[in-house]
Specification:
Elements lengths: L1 E6 L4 H12 L2 H4 L3 E7 L5 H8 L3 E4 L8 H13 L5 E4 L8 H6 L4 E5 L11 H7 L4 E8 L9 E8 L6 H26 L2
Parallel strand pairs: 1-2, 1-4, 2-3, 4-5
Antiparallel strand pairs: 5-6, 6-7
Bound molecules: 5-O-phosphono-beta-D-ribofuranosylamine.
5-O-phosphono-beta-D-ribofuranosylamine binds next to helix 1 and helix 7.
């Protein structure tokens, strides 16, 4: 099975999945591997990590396309070169068109840094702090045409501490993301038989 991971920045969630695949020997035990890491940003730091791991990489700069549909169509061609069984969005900061989402229905997942359905969208940590939340966290979910609304696959909860800033809370959540995302990918692969 081929896993294609899409990133836009540090790619720490992608790296966590790659490392877990190596540690748990997914290629032998799940017949699955991370076949490609694709980014919309040429300077995404995660690309260097993927290349070091010998994983194929590609960059599609969304600014080189004159519409969201044109970018998504080119992205789909690039992704399908790797015949993906699962497409993993990991810090991929693009809203995808319904046509793209429909093409990957049921095999497109994302991680969002909040306890969905609370705090869809951006700046989730500051919003949780401003709302006086005692807990925050992350959610792995199926991607549907409605942003941050697909079926929930996994969640992790962390406490919000009185002196938390968005950065300290983000760091606490990110640690949990690196635990639940690889776990959710492996569970998804096992569910596919
Ligand atoms: C993380 O907060 C993740 O929840 C969100 O993007 C942020 C950075 O992720 N999707 P990564 O380090 O690029 O994996």
């Amino acid at each position: 099975k081929n896993i294609v991971i899409l990133i836009s920045g540090s790619g720490s969630n992608m790296a966590a999945i790659v490392r877990r695949a190596q540690q748990e020997q997914w290629s032998e035990r799940l017949h699955a591997r991370v076949s490609a890491v694709i980014s919309n940003k040429a300077d995404a730091q995660g690309l260097a990590f993927a290349r070091e791991q010998g994983i194929a990489t590609a960059v599609l700069d969304h600014k080189a396309f004159d519409s969201r549909e044109a970018f998504d169509a080119a992205l789909k061609v690039e992704i399908d070169r790797f015949e993906p069984d699962l497409v993993v969005l990991a810090g991929f900061m693009r809203i995808l068109t319904p046509g793209f989402v429909a093409h990957y229905a049921g095999r497109l997942i994302n991680i969002h840094p909040s306890l969905l359905p609370a705090f869809t969208g951006l700046n989730t940590h500051q919003r949780a702090i401003d709302a006086g939340c005692r807990f925050a966290g992350a959610t792995v979910h199926q991607v549907t045409a409605e942003l941050d609304h697909g079926a929930i696959l996994a969640q992790a909860v962390v406490p919000v501490l009185p002196d938390d800033t968005a950065d300290t809370l983000a760091a606490r959540v990110l640690t949990q993301e690196h635990r639940i995302y690889p776990q959710a990918v492996a569970a998804w692969l096992r569910s596919q038989g």
